[in-house]
Amino acid sequence: MFSSRKAVLLLVAGLFAVTCAVARAADAGHFGYGTPATPAQIAGWDIDVRGEDGMGLPEGKGTVERGADVYAEQCAACHGTFGEGEGRFPKLVGGVGTLRDERPEPTVGSYWPFAPTLWDYINRAMPMPSPHTLSADDVYALTAYILHLNDLVPDAFVADRKSLPDVKMRNRNNFIWTDPRPDTMAKPCMNACVDAAGVRISSTAEGKSLTPRTTGPLDTMQPR
Ligand code: HEC
User: Fold this and answer.
1) What is the rounded distance in angstroms from the CA atom of residue 109 to the CA atom of residue 86?
2) From CA 223, how far away is CA 212, in angstroms rounded?
3) Are 107 and 95 in contact (CB under 8 A)?
4) Above 80 in pLDDT, residue 13?
5) CA 69, CA 96: separation in Å to the nearest integer?
6) Minimal CA–CA distance to 148: which of 132, 131, 130, 164?
7) Does any ligand 1 atom lie closer than 6 A to the CB of residue 8?
8) Which of 5, 13, 76, 100 gives a 20 to 30 Å CA spacing to 86?
9) C-alpha dist (Å) from residue 85 to 26, 78, 81, 215
10) Does residue 128 line the site of ligand 1, with CB under 6 A?
11) Which of 76, 54, 183 is nearest to 127 (CA)?
12) Is ligand 1 within 6 A of the CB of residue 74?
């Protein structure tokens, strides 16, 4: 029979072997688990496209005509035949001039600042039930078609990595790229940060009946 002593010895020997293996793997310059990502794996994740200049857009191209076909098959059910939006699914067209209204309609045509971002969005997120199933060419074609529905490009437009960054989007100049608030502009300060002589309290909220005396549900609060 197998004695419990032998079992313990075997267990200890086994643990020792595992520890050595882990130590060797760790010595090799990593934590002893996982494998380096392959270039193909990295390429699968590295899909972002920069709006302003289209950096990251892949090879390929697509026409408005081809886009109309793919759109009818894969997008119209939710976004409407002409981008008008079915039910509560988002419109992709219209809303131009509404951005200052009480109920603005932000769409690709009225709101989006960059055409390459449209390629990026479709490529990563649409069609909603099965994202990442479109070829780069079909994403280009859909981008061309949606820009065309918004009267931003002519019938003969061909979308590719060169043409998309040049499309003039209506709201392009209404985004503020630098944040002028003083606290975001402030340089980090490590010592003598407050100029004590320059700080002056000019008013306080005290005595202005701003804070109710009692707390609790509104209807039980008594004004002063
Ligand atoms: C099952 C319904 C459905 C289908 C099919 C679908 N979409 Fe969408 N789409 C949505 C929804 C829902 C959103 C909003 C997602 C969100 O805001 O998170 C959206 C958002 C979008 C937007 C961004 C709109 C904006 O201004 O924010 C674009 C562009 C778009 N879809 C394009 C497409 C294209 C192109 C196809 C076809 C390849 C497609 N969609 C297919 C449901 C769908």
Assistant:
1) 17
2) 6
3) yes
4) no
5) 25
6) 164
7) no
8) 100
9) 55, 6, 8, 47
10) yes
11) 76
12) yes
Ligand 1 near 75 CB (within 6 A): yes
pLDDT tens, position by position, 193-220: 777 677 777 888 777 877 666 665 655 5
Tokens at 161, concatenated: 């990595």
Query: Ligand 1: does its nearest atom lie under 6 Å from the Cβ of 78?
Result: yes
Cα four-point dihedral sign 217, 218, 222, 223: positive
Q: Is the pLDDT of residue 26 over 60?
A: no
From the CA of 42, how far away is ligand 1's center (Å)?
Answer: 26
More reliable by pLDDT, 159 or 8: 159
Ligand 1 centroid to residue 162 C-alpha, Å: 24
Q: Report whether residue 122 contacts ligand 1, using a CB cutoff of 6 Å.
A: yes
Do 21 and 33 contact (CB within 8 A), yes or no? no
CB proximity list for 55: less than 8 A, separation 6 or greater: 49
Q: Whose CA is nearest to atom 11 of ligand 1?
A: 89
Give 176 Cα–ligand 1 centroid separation in angstroms.
Answer: 26
The residue type at 25: A
